[in-house]
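Schema walk-through. Below, the input block comes first and the output block second. Nothing else is stored per chain. Lengths vary across the set, and this one has 325 residues.
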Amino acid sequence: MAFDRIAVVGAGAWGTALANAIARAGRNVTLVARDRAKAAAMAASRNNPRLPDIRIDERVAVTAELGGPADAVLLVVPAQALRAAAKAVAPALHAHTAVIACAKGIERGTHRFMSEVIAEAIPAALPAILSGPSFAVDVARGLPTAVTLAARDRKTAEALARALGSASFRPYHSTDVRGVEIGGAAKNVLAIGAGIVAGRGLGASAAAALTARGFAELLRFGKVFGARAETLTGLSGLGDLILTCSSPQSRNFSLGIAIGKGASPAEGAGDKLAEGAFTASALIDMAIEKKIDMPVAAAVAAVLDGTLGVDGAIEALLTRPFRAE
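--- output ---
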């Protein structure tokens, strides 16, 4: 399989960073912005305002339309917008085009994972998922980053990893699509909880405890939904959890910090999108349906929807019955 012509749909910070990384890998890459004015401005300035100090690689074509056929398409839009983006590009795609979700979330209402959304919106596509411990600014600058790229067919996953990979951007291939999706979605919710702990000033010991117990919840959820343990303990699970539960560069962690300091979820988010805020309720609905015990994630969801205040959520967690680990 040759994936030489690659389109990146979504010209935010992450989409721009991935376009730069793909250009470094030597591929023919097109970055598709949502509107013509934005595309024209970025093409002329070779700059994205969301990455102000980083130049868009000259080999990246910036446009407002998908244009000619692509061998693979990366959908770099928020999880809740993925279905609309997939439907929008569907008419321009050939059958069996690889379509890679780069969002970390679960669709609200349908409780669909990202690969399922792609399969429903573009039935002839080859759905895949890209996830792992990565900040856009690091990838855009060419700093060393490792992620996981999963597709159900091993050869497809391997070929995509080769096409996108370079010395500084290393995708490890997998066929555990569900495991990669669960790791990315659940860790965002847990990162908000870690941020709340930091914002409340509860200390490093509490932060470590929440991260560890949260990871146990992620493992339980993943096991029920068919994820492999080695995926959840790898880059797209534990690796991503460690990164987002410890750095203010994470929008989810930053949202939690603001909430911990007394802001409402809306105030804490400001104009930045934190995927975990939208995924939390879907994650907990699915856990309840399958009778999966997820007290940390449930506490975060309760704080986000206003059912519990921060102090009440902390008290609920600290007064749970003692039990074996």
